[in-house]
Amino acid sequence: MTSQLEFFVVLANHGSLAATARALDMTPPAVTKRLAQLEARLGVRLVNRSTRRLSLTHEGELLRDQSARILADIRNMETMISEQKGQVRGLLRINATLGFGRQRIALLASQFARQHPDIELDLHVSDRPLDLIEQHFDLGVRFGVLPDRRLVARRLMRNRRFLCASPAYLKRHGRPRTPADLLAHRCIIHNQNDEPHGVWRFHRGANSEVVKVRGALSSNDGDIARGWVLDGHGIMIRSEWDVNRYLDAGRLELVLPEYQLEPADLFVYFPSRANLPARVRLFVDFLAAQFR
What is the pLDDT of residues 171-189, one digit of tens each? Predict the structure, then answer.
């Protein structure tokens, strides 16, 4: 029955017979036959078929969710048994922020995989934070504190945020002296998650100031926004890990350096310290050592 559950989870995740066939190295008729056999065994319709996509029935959604939990429990049981023998193995599912995941976490995951060939790695990068518990991830690597009290957080790296612009832009438009001066400047806005767009908060000593900036360019992709600031289109906020090399090379300059912005420290998150699988502990400690 386990293979049937695995089959249905793949089918539910891919949403079409053709995609499922490719994922399982089967023919579409074989997928159709296997689905029919599963529905006949359970005595219910699991999917609504259309010409291009499949949609799950209520019973199909129940089977998908329960199957994912059962398969996760089986993997955890196998891992616990292996760990009793001194072996560390199993599937490690990681979620990481999009740009940083591509540039840093993917490389570190490659090093970790080389050191621990018996551990399977599944790295999923996304712009928005995912629900680690509901979507069955072992851990997440993201900037900033997540508002989920079910998760344990361990800081990997302190990460300040800077206001910066290209020398060409500052030469054409002048340099702001106070946060209020930004209202007369072109600002590049990075639309992140559910944060208010264009609301920038500054701190100087005990004083705080909030400015609602505007600009002709905005994007939900940080790499795109960074490219625009390098091209001289305006002023923007970026993390130090992302712009330090451009500041060192003189391609960007700090703006209002006497003011501080809210930091975006890097954290690794995981559901609980209790009964934490060895593979998760290994990867968390590995990340901490790399960033230390």
Answer: 999 999 999 999 999 999 9
For residue 268, give the nearest of 136, 112, 97, 127 by alpha carbon.
Answer: 97
In the block, residue with structure tokens 């259309």:
50
Query: What pLDDT band is residue 260 in, cutting at 50, 70 and 90?
Result: very high
Q: Give the number of residues written for the chain.
A: 292
| Residue 119, CB-side half-sphere exposure with 13 Å CA sphere | 25
Confidence (pLDDT) at 82: 57
For the cut 70, the answer to whether the pLDDT of residue 275 exceeds it is no
Angle at 158 between CA 153 and CA 161, to 5 degrees: 115
Q: Going along the chain, which residue ranges are E strands?
A: 47-49, 54-56, 90-97, 119-126, 139-143, 152-157, 161-165, 188-190, 199-204, 207-212, 217-219, 236-239, 253-254, 260-261, 266-270
Residue 85 CB neighbour total at 10 angstroms: 8
Identify the H or E element spanning 17: helix 17-24
Q: Quote the CA–CA distance of 259 and 200 in Å, as a whole number.
A: 12
Query: Rounded to 5 degrees, what are φ and ψ at 185?
Result: -115, 165
Q: Which amino acid is at 63?
A: L
- Cα distance between residue 237 and residue 230, in whole Å: 12
Name the residue with higher pLDDT: 237 or 24: 237
End-to-end CA distance of the chain: 46
How are the residues of the chain apportioned to helix, strand and coil, as percentages rounded to the nearest 5? 45, 25, 35
